[in-house]
Amino acid sequence: MRMILLIATLLFITACSPRYEIKTHYTQPISSTGKICLSKCEQNRQGCQERCDQHYNQCLSKAESNAKQNMNSMLNEYDRNMNGYERDINRYSSEMDRWQLRQDRLKDDYSHFDARCKDRRDNYACNKANELDDDLSSMYSSKPEEPSRPYKPTLSTQIEKFQENCSRKCNCVKGYDNCFVSCGGKLDYEKICVENCK
Hints:
By secondary structure, the protein is mainly alpha-helical.
């Protein structure tokens, strides 16, 4: 319990802590050769970004195509899982009925012996009531667990799942920054608070 409280406190603190982003300030070179060099950096950055966008769009299209091809097998797997789920839910239902019946009997017996213990101060009844109370408490740990219903896949969710691997991160800015510095430019970084600022 102490561990859960500690984790919850840490999560609360980190959720409320400030979030920062790094902003880059560019100081261009003064020389004309440096400025010509920078135009090549910009061309390279644009080319990198165009290739990146093209690769990203191809990845999205391929992911959609793969999702459509896999849809039938996913639905077949879902049907198999549903058959298993129906068997499991029937078994769970009968186990739950037996568990509930046993719990009801224990509650009735407990009520009887507890009342007798309180009214007559009967040692046997008091001991029996305590024993039944323990049995009732331990019953919750043996309560049947309801099976999880399988999730039915849809084409849109499958497309999303396949497209998760597609990325627009191509490090074009990093390449541009390196080129910018090699042309005589200067980079300055500023840490800016963007969320939960004090």
